[in-house]
Fold this protein.
Amino acid sequence: MSDTSGLFSVAGRVACVTGASSGLGRQAALVLARAGAQVVGVARRRDALQSLCDAAGPNCAAVDADIADRGALADTVARIAAPFGPPDILINAAGLNTREPADDVTDAGWDATLAINLSAPFFLARAMVPAMKEKGWGRIVNFASLQSTRAFPGGIAYGATKGGIAQMTRAMAEAWSAHGITANAIGPGFFPTELTKAVFDDAGRAARNAAQTCIGRNGRPNDLDGTVLFFCSEASAYVTGQILMLDGGFTAK
């Protein structure tokens, strides 16, 4: 019988988490650091990243950067690798939702949403894949959404990027999994984060969303933990190109 004691271990792995200053990105960074990975949190807000590292302990380093700035990508990737070495794990959790109705979408809003939500995950992954190939091991975890498959009001730009994330995840798996690099995505339901503040500020809307789930409640930050450890460890070695809906059954009803 095989030893399964280390199946979900991330000890000694190096992980890069974008959007680590708040919300589900911060939660992913915390769970990985507390599970023994060396984590580099990436976001624009240095003070929020420092707060993350204070909570995560010595296994955490911070890189303040704009991941949408493609001209600075090489420098950003070098800064990410500086504290612990090139990442084995990339979690693309940074996100933007302008909530502009279709008739009112601005050029700037559309471009910024695509740059953060869709372009940055690809170009970051592509830049980090060579080091993963050298090791013969890597994990890419993207963030999909309920809007990967469903249309919500004011979500045309966001939904377009999240539909793209679902397909890009499958394409990443096709491109890189033969090298030991899996690519999967987490599709969160409604969790209380900065990105969903408008939703949770409306108590009636939040209650309706909870009622739509099979479980009967909205997400809590630690609901993310098990899925992150699964996708970032040997437990998911034969899982790639998949979107796991972490939504309490919202999409099942």
